[in-house]
Amino acid sequence: xxxxxxxxxxxxxxxxxxxxxxxxxxxxxxxxxxxxxxxxxxxxxxxxxxxxxxxxxxxxxxxxxxxxxxxxxxxxxxxxxxxxxxxxxxxxxxxxxxxxxxxxxxxxxxxxxxxxxxxxxxxxxxxxxxxxxxxxxxxxxxxxxxxxxxxxxxxxxxxxxxxxxxxxxxxxxxxxxxxxxxxxxxxxxxxxxxxxxxxxxxxxxxxxxxxxxxxxxxxxxxxxxxxxxxxxxxxxxxxxxxxxxxxxxxxxxxxxxxxxxxxxxxxxxxxxxxxxxxxxxxxxxxxxxxxxxxxxxxxxxxxxxxxxxxxxxxxxxxxxxxxxxxxxxxxxxxxxxxxxxxxxxxxxxxxxxxxxxxxxxxxxxxxxxxxxxxxxxxxxxxxxxxxxxxxxxxxxxxxxxxxxxxxxxxxxxxxxxxxxxxxxxxxxxxxxxxxxxxxxxxxxxxxxxxxxxxxxxxxxxxxxxxxxxxxxxxxxxxxxxxxxxxxxxxxxxxxxxxxxxxxxxxxxxxxxxxxxxxxxxxxxxxxxxxxxxxxxxxxxxxxxxxxxxxxxxxxxxxxxxxxxxxxxxxxxxxxxxxxxxxxxxxxxxxxxxxxxxxxxxxxxxxxxxxxxxxxxxxxxxxxxxxxxxxxxxxxxxxxxxxxxxxxxxxxxxxxxxxxxxxxxxxxxxxxxxxxxxxxxxxxxxxxxxxxxxxxxxxxxxxxxxxxxxxxxxxxxxxxxxxxxxxxxxxxxxxxxxxxxxxxxxxxxxxxxxxxxxxxxxxxxxxxxxxxxxxxxxxxxxxxxxxxxxxxxxxxxxxxxxxxxxxxxxxxxxxxxxxxxxxxxxxxxxxxxxxxxxxxxxxxxxxxxxxxxxxxxxxxxxxxxxxxxxxxxxxxxxxxxxxxxxxxxxxxxxxxxxxxxxxxxxxxxxxxxxxxxxxxxxx
Length: 922
Prior knowledge:
Layout: H1 15-31, E1 33-39, H2 45-58, E2 62-67, H3 78-84, H4 96-105, H5 116-133, E3 136-141, H6 148-158, E4 166-173, E5 187-189, H7 195-205, H8 211-221, H9 225-238, H10 254-265, H11 269-281, H12 286-291, H13 303-307, E6 311-314, E7 319-322, H14 325-333, H15 337-350, H16 355-365, H17 371-385, H18 390-402, H19 407-423, H20 427-440, H21 448-460, H22 465-477, H23 488-504, H24 510-518, H25 526-536, H26 539-542, H27 547-555, H28 563-573, H29 583-596, H30 600-616, H31 619-636, H32 642-655, H33 659-676, H34 679-695, H35 699-709, H36 726-735, H37 739-752, H38 759-772, H39 777-785, H40 794-810, H41 814-831, H42 834-846, H43 854-861, H44 865-875, H45 880-887, H46 891-905, H47 913-917
Parallel strand pairs: 1-4, 1-5, 2-3, 3-4
Antiparallel strand pairs: 6-7
């Protein structure tokens, strides 16, 4: 049971039960009653009893306590003695016959055994009489261990407390109330904690728990509070640290073992052998268990365990399952090491055709170095890696390293595990594993896995990009097998080098990579070519030719289960604006990461969905995912990649008119990125600034920031984001009288052929060309807006309409201008793109929109940017909740702002907002 010392001030996840018990207390204090708490061992019944006792005591209720004990279970009336001993002075208030019966039964006097009905009535009468002075609550814990005589008397009394101010509250393990008759009595089942509450309890009590231990504890505990509180201690006593895999079956400490060990130990030997095999086999397949019997047991031997409700057999699926993971752990804890090795050997033989399971069982059965078993474990690890289960891969590789007969083999396998640890953001594991490699191998740098892991670890530890690049480049250049595209270490190192070059953001970093890829014969891996050519390296110059390769990958991506492939195809789809076709696969990666703990692939998937959400106008979701990603980086490691999520937050703040927030985020990014040589973060920061400056009509600053990304008249080599600021650069150049620069940039865009990468880029290119065109501008704008899929990119499309409307108005085509400007304004208001909405409205007024009253205009001028955003969204018909979701504030904050906005605008109701801030009707 959970001890009183284990109870926090507020019981996590128990609001429903506490509220129910509070109402029970109120009821019994006025009219008496009985309530039974039932639940599995360790679920927290005792903690609830203690919480109820505390509340009752605070309200002036008299508390009587009984705790069933195994050693007293055969002592007649031992429980009744516990309960009524504090009331011994009140016996005299009863009649002589009742008082005498009580004294004899409880051992305070000698005489013949009292009549059972007389004694039961005496106890009931005593409780009711004491409760007449003040409310009374009798609490009984562990009913199954209550002696039979006491159980019978209290069962009688429990049904006769109504009408008094006495209550009885008792707890027992589900299905085992002992001799206490529970029939017809009210019962409150105490369930296991839900996932959220279990995670909260574990975080509060063990904030520094390693992620892989945390995940295993949550999985094993299944919401059982005692297990959540005790398993971390048990793991710490046996787990050596990040370099050792967390045991598949967690050990039990003394408190946990006491829950089930006695029941397991009482089973016949054949049943225990069968349960041990089932515990180690893990799927519960009866056919496998029968084949693994080897004369030690028969399936019929499951019967005693079924009868004691330790296991459940499902005939339809031919499986046996433990009723709780702790029972499984207890079975293993009660076995000897020799018994476990024998079971593993037998299972390995039965599962000969299943690589992963056979390898694991052989690894557990083997105690001496064995290269054959080590190689099998390594092969299994590489297969598991395709599913993205980082911890399982590390576990298999570490076991393979333990069984490796040579230091070189051990070092290579630890290096591979270290790389997987770095991929999975397991910083502590990576550090320990890299140390293990250095201790095992005189030349650890000769392993490309070591170099890849060390490079990733260096980035995560705030090292300089150039240092990580140099480490990897030297390792790749000196690799003897440098022409083999099937060399797994080499390809992994090349992907890692591509990542380092990408975040470095400078063309010269890519020289070594391109040289290494060119050496591969007969040709480099397709995925490597596509990912670097369409995303990481220079898609401006290589992307269009690779689109057929991307088409083929996207056609089957819904069937792809390898998260590494999903990640690389998604990256290839970013600048081609094809991420919408990746959303299902990306969300699958995100959900898997949420379930299995942090991992680099989950972070990357979050980044990708943020990119897609931004261009598709799903800004509320983009903000939520950016917040999630940033929290992951801060909590679990991966701090290096936090700049991605600050970038998305800065972008959203810029387009929504929260320019000070955007600039603050940019300053954080630049302050971190510049000293570390992270050019990609600097480019992203400047992109956000470009949009912020445009929103403020600061075209000079917008031009300066855009040309820092890519100078006018060029699309910078190996800077893919040059495509995403091309229209902005041309607009800023035109508005600052740099027509020659604007024309040169449009010419470069056209010659690059990048319009073929994506209809969005084609639309933007046509709009940029229209800005510098003379007579042909309307046709170019019209062509831009008739590109395929323009509806998928509402912000870009609305910006093109705004530019088109401005041009039409200046050409005195007022009616046509108003059509474009109204559509732009509607889109900006729906998005919450306040600066652009203000600009569109200004143009509409210049095109002849009905003027506001002077008072209204003055009122609008007095609004803050945040108030303008809220007022426009409210005027468009959105609710406070919907406005809050757009602007990432609470509905209550929206309401407070509207309360201040109304008097500024001289209005008293929401319906007047649209007229007060400007009507679209003109």
